[in-house]
Amino acid sequence: MKSDLCSKFTICIIEDDPWYGQLLQYQLSLNPDYCVSLYTSGQEFFEKVTARPDVITIDFSLPDISGDKLLKKLVSKYPGLPVIVISSQSKIVTAVELLKQGATDYLIKDENTKELLWNAILRVRENVSLKQEVKRLEQQLHEKYTFNNLLKGNSPALQATFGLMEKAAQTPVNVSITGETGTGKELVAKAIHMNSDRQKGPFVAMNMAAIPSELVESELFGHEKGSFTGAQGRKIGRFEEANGGTLFLDEIGELPAAIQSKLLRVLQERELQRVGGSETIKLNVRLITATHKNLADEVRAGSFREDLYYRIIGLPINLPPLRDRSSDIVFLAKHFVDDFCREYRKPPLLLGPGVCDKLLAYDYPGNVRELKTTMELAAVLSNGTEIKPSDVVFTPSARSNELLAEEKTLREYTRTIIRHHLNKYQNNVPLVAQKLDIGRSTIYKMVQEGEI
Ligand SMILES: Nc1ncnc2c1ncn2[C@@H]1O[C@H](COP(=O)(O)OP(=O)(O)OP(=O)(O)O)[C@@H](O)[C@H]1O
C-alpha cells in the first residue's frame, strides 16, 4: 500500500520554503517511527505520492495553489486523512474556515511551530490508534452478537427462529416473543437489536411483572417533578431512554388495564408526554414485547385490549420449551460446562456415561435458565475430568414447592394439574390426556361435573 512512501507512520510535508521544510522534516525524523518526506508544491506532491500517507502538513501560502484549495483536493482524494495547516496568518476566521473544511489542526508559523507540530502529530497518532481500537472492538462486538454466538443449540426449531430473527433485524417491525420462562426471550430480543441498524442505540429492558402497578406509568413514560406525591424530581421513562434504539417489554400481559390505552396512544402517535408534563417528546423506538401467556386468550377474556394486541403483535416469534427441543439439551449442557470451565480457568470437563440420559429424561420447567444453573453446579461438584450423573442435581422448582405447601387433597391436586394443562394446550383434551397419561373421559367427566 505504501510502497512509494515507507512502512512506518508516514508524514508528508508540503512547504515551498526549502529551509523551513527541511527544518520540520529534520525535527519530525527524530522520531524513529516516522518516515517524513518533503514536497515543495502541491503539484509535486500529487505527481510523486500515490499511496495514502498517515498525515499531511501543508503550508497555507504555496505558489502554485492556495491553502484552502489544496486542503479541499486532499480531503476529497483521501477522506478522513488528517491534514495540519501551517500558516503565517494568525487570522481566526481563516483558521475557523479551514477547520470547518476538514483541517485537523491549524498552526501559526513562529518559533514554537516545531514543538506544536510534534504534539499535533502525537495527537493524530493517538486518534488513529483509538479509531483502530474502536473498529476492532466493534468487530468483536458484532461477532459476539451474531445469532449463533448468542443463542446456542442445533434444533430445527432454533434454526427456524434464526430465520425469523433475521427478518426482524432487517426491518423496523414490532416483534412479539412468546415462550415459557427461561426459554431465551430476552436473549432473542437483544440479538435482534444488536443485528439491526439500531445496534448503536440503547437496548432498554423492562419487566412489567417486576414493577408495582402504580409505578408502571411513570417507569414507562417518565414524570415531571411534583406530578404526584413522591415525585421529587423529573424522571426519564424507559421509552425516552430507549429513543434511537429498542425497548423490550417483558411480561407485557401484566400491563395494567389503565396503562394499556396510554401505551396504544404512544405507539400510534410516536410521541409522549411525561406524567404531569406538557412537553411533547418525539419517539423513534422499536418495540419488542414478550410474554409467557397466550395474549389472544387474554384478549378473549377481556383483560388485554384487542387494539393494543394487534398493534404490538407485529412479527410473532415463539420459543418452544426446552423439553420439546431435545437435541438442544445436550448441546447446551456441553456449552454451559465449557463456558464455565473457561471462565473459572478449570480444565475442560467431559460429560461422563449416563449424564446425557439423565439430562434427556428431565422436563426443565425452568427451561434453558434451569439447565444453565444445573450444569454450572455440576461443574462445581465434579471432582475428576468428567461430570458424573450424580453431579447433575435438579433442584425442585419453587413452583412445585409452593404447590405442595398448599396441602390439598389428591383430587384437588388432580384438578389443578388438569386445569393447568388445559390452559397450556388451549383446551386440547386429547393432547392433555396424552401428556398426563390419563383417559380423555376422566377429563370430560370433570368438565361435565363443573370441577374444572
Ligand atoms: N439458546 C441459548 N443459548 C445460550 N443461552 C441461552 C439460550 N437460551 C437462553 N439462554 C440463557 O438462559 C437464561 C434465560 O434466558 P432469558 O432471560 O433470555 O429467558 P426469558 O425467556 O427472557 O426468561 P423470563 O421469561 O423468565 O424473563 C439466560 O442466562 C440466557 O443467557
Mind sketching the topology for me?
Elements: E1 9-14, H1 18-29, E2 34-39, H2 42-48, E3 55-59, H3 67-77, E4 83-87, H4 92-101, E5 105-108, H5 113-144, H6 147-150, H7 156-170, E6 175-178, H8 185-194, E7 203-207, H9 213-221, H10 238-241, E8 246-250, H11 257-269, E9 271-272, E10 281-282, E11 286-291, H12 295-300, H13 306-313, E12 315-318, H14 326-343, E13 350-351, H15 355-361, H16 367-381, E14 386-387, H17 398-405, H18 410-424, H19 429-436, H20 440-448
Helix pairs in contact: 7-8, 14-16
Category by helix and strand content: alpha/beta
Question: Please, how many helices?
Answer: 20
Task: Name the helicity range.
Answer: 40-55%
Label the CATH architecture of the largest domain. Answer: 3-Layer(aba) Sandwich
Molecular structure report:
It holds the Pfam family Sigma54_activat. It comes from Hymenobacter yonginensis. This is Sigma-54 dependent transcriptional regulator. The modification 4-aspartylphosphate is found at residue 59. Residues 10-124 form the Response regulatory domain. The protein is of the alpha/beta class and 452 residues long. The protein has 4 domains: 9-139, Rossmann fold (3-Layer(aba) Sandwich), CATH 3.40.50.2300; 147-318, 3-Layer(aba) Sandwich (Rossmann fold), CATH 3.40.50; 324-391, Helicase, Ruva Protein, domain 3; 408-448. It is built from 20 helices and 14 strands. The chain has helices spanning 18-29, 42-48, 67-77, 92-101, 113-144, 147-150, 156-170, 185-194, 213-221, 238-241, 257-269, 295-300, 306-313, 326-343, 355-361, 367-381, 398-405, 410-424, 429-436, 440-448; strands at 9-14, 34-39, 55-59, 83-87, 105-108, 175-178, 203-207, 246-250, 271-272, 281-282, 286-291, 315-318, 350-351, 386-387. It has a 5-stranded parallel beta sheet, sandwiched between helices. Strands 7-8-11-6-12 form a 5-stranded parallel beta sheet. A hairpin with an 8-residue loop joins strand 9 (271-272) and strand 10. Helix 7 (156-170) packs across helix 8 and helix 14 (326-343) packs across helix 16 (367-381). It is elongated. The termini are far apart. The relative contact order is 0.07. The model has no long low-confidence stretch (mean pLDDT 90). The chain binds adenosine-5'-triphosphate. The site of adenosine-5'-triphosphate has 17 residues, from helix 8 and helix 16.
